[in-house]
Amino acid sequence: MAKLCVVLLTACAALLALGAAPSLAGDPNMLQDICVADYMSLQGPLRVNGYPCKPAENVTADDFFYGGLASAADVYGGGNPMGSVVTVADVERLPGLNTLGVSMSRVDYAPWGGTNPPHSHQHATEILFVAEGTLQVGFVTTSGRHITRAVPKGGLFVFPRGMMHYERSVGEAPAVAISAFDSQLPGTQRLGEAMFGAAPGVPTDVLARALQTDGGVVESIRAKFQPK
Questions:
Q1: Which residues in the chain are classed under CATH 2.60.120.10?
Q2: What is the pLDDT along the chain (228 residues), one digit of tens a residue?
Q3: 110 Cβ contact list (under 8 Å, min separation 6)
Q4: Is 121 annotated as a binding residue?
Q5: Which CATH class is domain 25-187?
Q6: Which of 9, 44, 80, 97 has the largest CB neighbor count within 10 A?
Q7: Does 116 carry a binding-site annotation?
Q8: How far does the signal peptide extend, from start to end residue (predicted)?
């Protein structure tokens, strides 16, 4: 009897330990073949970390197809000051990605300076492949180190999860990059928009102190950003 009690206590302790470490408990993978995102569920009360599954009988091949990365974007359209356009293929555009933990994007850059400005992906590591042109890329670590280099056509570069990073075209020809992420929805936070385009806005005096400038400069920069 005493031995049985010890075994039961040990088993309970193991279960509690696994419960405290979800990454070690249960089956971390999908328990069904597919879980195509059911966008219509957003009209109801159900909210989960991702999308609920569409009924299997309503799934079609088109749920797993997206052609948005095939065509080059107009990097000059609408008075675009950055000279770059990001075309995203995530779960919000490709419902078949739901629960699969991957996504991609295409970035088109104008020659000589087209820039994907400083931003971060809180949910994903990014691996970038330069399909055309040459890019100067970089990211900044939490210790303030700037890691940067040129990446030619055919080269790869990795941006660790959550690190602020950027890319800039440095060649005479337009550049194109394809990025892959280990998240179905990487989450993108652009530095300039976060500081100056948030709604309600970050207080002017806070930004003035952070940037070691005066409020007039902050307001001048803020005027260039549309509130979200």
A1: 25-187
A2: 555 454 434 444 443 443 444 444 344 567 778 889 888 876 655 556 678 889 999 999 999 999 999 999 999 988 889 999 999 999 999 999 998 999 999 999 999 999 999 999 999 999 999 999 999 999 999 999 999 999 999 999 999 999 999 999 998 999 999 999 999 999 999 999 999 999 899 999 999 999 999 999 999 999 998 876
A3: 75, 76, 83, 84, 169, 174
A4: yes
A5: mainly beta
A6: 97
A7: yes
A8: 1-25
